[in-house]
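If your schedule permits, I should be very grateful for your opinion on a structural question. Thank you for your consideration; the sequence and its tokens are set out here:

===
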Amino acid sequence: MTQKEMDYERIKQSIEYISENYIKQPELNEIAEHVHLSPYHFQRLFIRWAGVSPKKFLQYLTIENSKQKLEESSNLAEVAYDVGLSGTSRLHDLFINIEGMTPYQYKQKGAGITIYYDFFISPFGKFLLAVTNNNKVCSIQFADDEIFAEEELKNQWFNSTIIRSREKTALIADKIFNLKSTDPIQVLAKGTPFQIKVWESLLKIPFGQLTSYQSVAELINKPKALQAVGSAIGNNPVAYLIPCHRVIRKAGNISQYHWGETRKKAIIGWEASYLEVV
């Protein structure tokens, strides 16, 4: 296990511990003891990872903070329009362009496409990155289990030729969690027209902001299709780049994430922390 993986594992354990013991508001010493570090070293680890103290970080994960974020983005269409005009939507987000497969490609289920993949380390643990032979990202999965992640990739693209290659994937992997990168990234999304419409709408949620499933449904002019919208978000094949982690329940609860609730909390807090320190 690399140092980055060990750091995230301790961050994950601390977030889980705080969530489970939220009512009694555990002190720094108690949380540090739970992850087997001294308070000094735990504080240093957390600031190195998030840029802010554990106490500050936790404020971003409260229901009260989530509700405030939801209120700010209650009309996601207006937020997206305003952010687009000001240009701040790309201040921290990478420029992502989703390209849906043609009906023929979708019917062929990836036949004739060569896909290269490998595993890399992010601030949120190991992830699998897969790209096509023309450098379009077609899958990102957080991978606690490499074998399971490989099987998921094969199930998504079972008619494609799949090859493990560091050389073909490393340059793109370096850009994904680099908040200073301005290079555009192309995404090839394998989904229905409805799913792609939902995924495209997620790109309109500004960095560090949150919105509700209802707001996403309204943005795509399907206000009554909450279940279908939730299903499309849950089937997002490109973690982080298509920011499904920014969608939470209307009540402010941070839950429902394909790669784990704790990881979703970590990403939300990490983005909010970055805005705090820049």
